[in-house]
Amino acid sequence: MSYEKILQLGFVGDGQMSRAIQTAAQSAGHTVSSIIRRNDSTENIDGSLIYECALPEGVLERIKTLCDLSKDVVIVTTGWYDRLEEVRQWVEVAGNRVVWSSNYSIGVQLFFKIVNYSSQLFNHMIEYDIWGTELHHRNKTDSPSGTAKTLGEIIINNIDRKESLVTETLHRKIKPEEIHFSSTRGGENNFSHTISFGGASDCITLQHSATNRNEYAIGAIKAGEWLKRQPPGFYSMEDFLSDLLPRI
């Protein structure tokens, strides 16, 4: 797949993920033209492609400003998906390009597909219960992660006997129609998500894990390069992956 190269990139946010993407961008030959740090005005951003990587607080206001500025945007920040359709409308009115994802790792995107297919299989195996766990570094600000929520939604959409995702600590017996997805935070570079299908005598476990942010950052850069070659619109990593998969 051929991507547009030598992009002028702007970054909203300068945390660990933003810095990892900046490093990956420069390694790929792109230029970081501006960085808007926390509490700075997004209106001052410069670049032909903007990476929104700041904290969830105020993310919708920042996205709206970037759309009003007709900026093409890769949204890395999570925690706003209940307003997805509203953001889609902003993009349609602005006529810019936006791609979003709960996780830009290509490995995680393939993991989503594996869990999707597996949960369809276990929909027919009522003897098996399903649950999830995740581990993230101690500096992650949201819990559960956007990735955990996406995995939970995939399972609920495919398992007829499961209706809701429970992410808080339980001090009661879990209901048959619930999926419990627990979160742990600790360490410097922990990233893992595990889905288990357990019966009375066996358990099948699927896991994706990473020891650093490199794959996430590289995926975000590839998604941005791909976005610049698309017509104006609101895209997901699923759209990006549909172009990538024929080459695997």
| Low-pLDDT residue spans | none
Per DSSP E runs of 2 or more residues, the count of β-strands stands at 11
Q: What is the helical fraction, as a range of percent?
A: 25-40%
In percent, how much strand structure appears in the residues? 15-25%
What general form does the structure show?
Answer: elongated
What CATH first level of the largest domain would be assigned?
A: Alpha Beta
User: What is the spatial order of strands in the main beta sheet?
Assistant: 2-1-3-4-5-11
Spell out the helices and strands N to C. EHEEHEHEHEHEEEEHEH
The total tally of domains equals 2
SSE topology sketch:
Blueprint: E1 8-12, H1 16-27, E2 31-36, E3 49-52, H2 59-68, E4 73-75, H3 84-94, E5 97-100, H4 106-122, E6 129-136, H5 146-158, E7 164-166, E8 178-185, E9 191-198, E10 203-210, H6 214-227, E11 233-236, H7 237-244
Parallel strand pairs: 1-2, 1-3, 3-4, 4-5, 5-11, 6-8, 7-8
Antiparallel strand pairs: 6-9, 9-10
Helix pairs in contact: 1-6, 2-3, 4-5
Describe this protein's structure.
- With 248 residues, this protein is of the alpha/beta class.
- It folds into two domains: 132 residues, Rossmann fold, CATH 3.40.50.720; 105 residues, Dihydrodipicolinate Reductase, domain 2 (2-Layer Sandwich).
- The chain contains seven helices and eleven strands.
- Helix 3 links the parallel strand 4 and strand 5.
- It is elongated, with a radius of gyration of 19 Å.
- It starts with 7 loop residues before the first strand and ends with a helix.
- The mean pLDDT is 92.
